[in-house]
Structures are given as C-alpha cells and as structure tokens.
Specification:
binds nickel (II) ion
C-alpha cells in the first residue's frame, strides 16, 4: 500500500473532517502515514495523532521558521518525546533561506542541535532545505561521513539538482518526492526522479501543502498520492504497483519499521 512519509494533518485546514478523512485512508490504498512536527504545538499534535491511529507514526522537530524563540529546554523535551514507541524520526529540521527569517545563524544553531539529538536518540532525520543547498550540505557532511551502509534520513520535498541528489544518496539519504513532480514547470525534479534509483525515493504529500495536478489549488491529502505514483511510474517506465511497492519498502527502511 502507499506509504505517505510526510504529512501535517494537525493543520487547522483538517479541523472539520480530520477523523473521517483519516478513517478513509485504508479503503483508498493508503497504508501508513508519518505525521511530522514543525514546531512545539504541531509536534505535540503529531505524537497525539500517532497515539490515536494505529497506522500513523510521528516525527518530532522544530522547522527552521519556528526556531526564533527556541530554548535548550525545548531540546530536552524533544529528546524525551523521541523515546516514545511511535516516534520514528527527528523532523522536520533544516534551513530555509527563502525569507531569511529568523536569521541564518539562528536557523543553523538549532538545525545542528537537532541533528545532535537525532544522533543521541539514534533516529533518522527529516530534512527541510529550501534556497540553502550549500549550507545544508556542509552541515550534513560534518555529521554524516560517507557510509552507504546505514540509513540516515530523508531530504523532504527535494528541490535541488541531480548532482546534489547524488551526494545525499551516497551519504545514505532518501529523497522525498511529492506533488511538485506533477507540476508543469518541474523539469529539474523530473530529471532527479529519472536519474536516481527508485530504491532511494519515498512518497510524501506534505499535506495540506503542495497538492499535485490536477487539483493543484485545493487542500492536499494522502489520497492525492495516486497522481504522484502515476507520474513516477511514467518517468521510470514501471507499473504503478511497482512504484507503490518499492517506495513502501523504502519508507519502512527509512523509518525502521
Ligand atoms: Ni512539511
């Protein structure tokens, strides 16, 4: 079944129909979901959702946008959550220079601190990196020396070149592929998907964001991953079932399930 490796169902856009939507996943071919924290509040809610639904797992972390007021005691709190049985990753963490807020220095400080927590708790990481290719890679290289034997995490919503994709894959990372691959202007990502082996790719929605074509302007949910599967199958010249099976296996390896 389809494994959605990255969602935000705690978002208020799901307040009216969250339970009925989540309860409809199985009959629509969606097996497991990882609900990802992006700050203090959404991390709490991710853990709660993982406790309420058997097929949902949680990731705990502070998104770069949310790092302005973070303190060391928040890190201790994250670490304590990381010990919970259904918490499978630290994330999403990283760098986002799109608006340069908070400052790059603050973002880097908490990115590095959360990478340390992942190391201490032996959990994989979910990396968010936008307009920050070089700094992200430099920080990652100091943490993850080339060792392809082990799984270290996923670069979520991968948006860089095939060359950078290759570096991450060689470091043992997976690439998260979602709705963007269906967009008309997604040539760069299509090149990444066509050149990288399917056994290093995982499916993700980032719901409620990044809705694939043909529903691009609507709220996203895991139900739309069928469009992403369709597009990847076309690029790779494989059947949709092969894409579903291989990416599901990858997701289980990534999150060690
Ligand atoms: Ni996200």
């Amino acid at each position: 079944m389809i494994f959605d490796t990255h969602t935000h169902y705690s978002d208020q856009r799901f307040d009216n129909d969250r339970n009925s939507l989540l309860m409809s996943m199985e009959e629509n071919g969606i097996g497991n979901i990882v609900e990802v924290g992006a700050g203090i509040k959404s991390t709490k809610e991710a853990v709660k959702l993982s406790e309420e639904y058997s097929f949902i797992y949680a990731a705990v972390g502070i998104h770069p946008y949310e790092t302005a007021d973070i303190k060391e005691e928040d890190m201790e709190w994250l670490k304590s959550l990381a010990l919970k049985e259904k918490v499978v990753a630290i994330g999403e963490i990283g760098l986002d220079y799109h608006y340069d807020k908070p400052s790059r220095q603050i973002q880097q400080k908490w990115f590095i601190r959360q990478l340390e927590i992942a190391k201490e708790t032996e959990l994989p990481v979910i990396i968010h990196s936008r307009d920050a290719a070089e700094d992200t890679l430099n920080i990652m290289k100091t943490f993850y020396q080339a060792n392809v034997q082990e799984t270290y995490g996923v670069v979520h919503c991968f948006s860089y070149s095939p060359e950078i994709a290759k570096i991450y894959i060689n470091m043992g990372f997976y690439l998260g592929i979602g709705g963007v691959v269906t967009f008309k202007n997604s040539k760069k990502l299509i090149n990444v998907v066509s050149q990288m082996p399917l056994d290093r790719l995982v499916l993700e929605t980032d719901a409620p964001y990044l809705t694939p074509e043909p529903d691009r302007n609507k709220r996203n949910s895991s139900l739309n991953l069928k469009y992403v599967v369709e597009k990847i199958a076309k690029i790779k010249g494989m059947t949709q079932q092969e894409v579903i099976n291989i990416t599901e296996k990858n997701a289980r390896e990534l999150y060690r399930l």
